[in-house]
Design a protein that fits this description.
The chain is mainly alpha-helical. The chain contains 5 helices and no strands. The protein has helices spanning 2-36, 41-73, 77-88, 90-100, 103-112. The longest helix has 35 residues, at 2-36.
């Protein structure tokens, strides 16, 4: 039954996507307001990094689940493959954005592999 399908699958999916966008834009607004009243350049830089990271996550998670809607309406395999690849690589992309591209983490990690007896950076 088509109605049961939409009630059971599409409605929760749409609610999650809408809730994610609402939370994102509220966080974005708070960070943007803080950015306007920052006193030091280090605070401003930290807030800009947070805004950039949150926007990257919005794109990553938003595009993935919006492509899920395309899968619901399209029976060809290309949208299904795109959705499957995006969903299965979300964790990898979050790792890249939040860990690998983070200068502090890279600096700490480079010190973790120093030989015994050598000082870290």
């Amino acid at each position: 039954n088509g109605v049961a399908f939409y009630v059971a699958l599409v409605t929760p999916l749409a609610l999650v996507v809408v809730a994610n966008f609402i939370v994102f834009f509220r966080v974005w607004r708070v960070l943007s307001k803080r950015l306007m009243v920052t006193k030091t350049s280090s605070e401003e830089e930290a807030l800009r990094k947070r805004l950039k990271a949150s926007f990257g996550l919005l794109v990553l998670l938003g595009l993935t689940w919006l492509s899920g809607f395309a899968v619901l309406e399209n029976t060809s395999t290309a949208p299904q493959w795109i959705f499957t690849i995006l969903v299965s690589t979300q964790g990898f992309f979050i790792f890249i954005m939040q860990v690998f591209l983070n200068k502090k983490v890279r600096r700490l990690e480079s010190g973790a592999f120093n030989p015994i007896g050598r000082e870290g950076p």
